[in-house]
């Protein structure tokens, strides 16, 4: 894995959270993107070389809605940039990690993504992401 690509934060109201994070970070979000397949609206902030991704559910079955029901708002996942997501998934599988996806899927911000089950990583939902060329 190359670096932390972004930290995902589950929020109830993305417009309100955009205002809070703009104040916190001193710069407004640079894009918003809805991921229909995941039922989420996302918003991205740059912090130096890193990014913060805010996520709001757009439907009740969304993983973000379930997360907020269980735990409330807060840090949802940590995403690591990888060069070859399939190779990284195979490596982690071999190491005994439980993956939530069999195949990489298209995520926000022009990425192929896959998740590692939080039970495999000390309670942290880990996202792998590979930039789509
Ligand atoms: Zn993410």
Order of helices and strands: EHEEEHEHEEE
Strand order of the largest sheet: 2-3-4-1-5-8-7-6
Global morphology: globular
According to DSSP, the number of beta strands is 8
Q: Classify the beta-strand content into a percent band.
A: 35-45%
Low-confidence stretches: none
The major beta sheet can be summarized as: 8 strands, mixed
Span between termini: 18 Å
Topology:
Blueprint: E1 3-10, H1 14-25, E2 31-35, E3 40-47, E4 50-57, H2 63-71, E5 74-81, H3 85-94, E6 105-107, E7 111-116, E8 126-131
Parallel strand pairs: 1-4, 5-8
Antiparallel strand pairs: 1-5, 2-3, 3-4, 6-7, 7-8
Bound molecules: zinc ion.
Zinc ion binds at residues 6, 8, 53, 77, 79, 127.
Describe the structure.
With 133 residues, the protein is an alpha+beta fold. An eight-stranded mixed β-sheet has the order 2-3-4-1-5-8-7-6.
List keywords for this structure.
alpha+beta; eight-stranded mixed sheet; binds zinc ion; globular; 3 helices; 133 residues
């Amino acid at each position: 894995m190359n670096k932390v690509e972004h930290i995902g934060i589950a929020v109830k109201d993305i417009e309100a959270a955009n205002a809070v994070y703009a104040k916190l970070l001193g710069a407004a979000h640079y894009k918003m993107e809805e991921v229909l397949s995941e039922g989420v609206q996302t918003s991205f902030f740059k912090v130096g070389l890193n990014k913060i991704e805010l996520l709001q559910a757009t439907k009740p079955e969304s993983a973000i809605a379930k997360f907020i029901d269980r735990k409330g708002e807060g840090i949802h996942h940590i995403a690591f940039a990888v060069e070859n997501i399939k190779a990284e998934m195979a490596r982690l599988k071999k190491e005994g990690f439980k993956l939530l996806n069999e195949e990489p899927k298209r995520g926000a911000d022009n990425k192929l993504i896959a998740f590692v089950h939080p039970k495999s990583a000390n309670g942290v939902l880990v996202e792998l992401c590979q930039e789509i060329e």
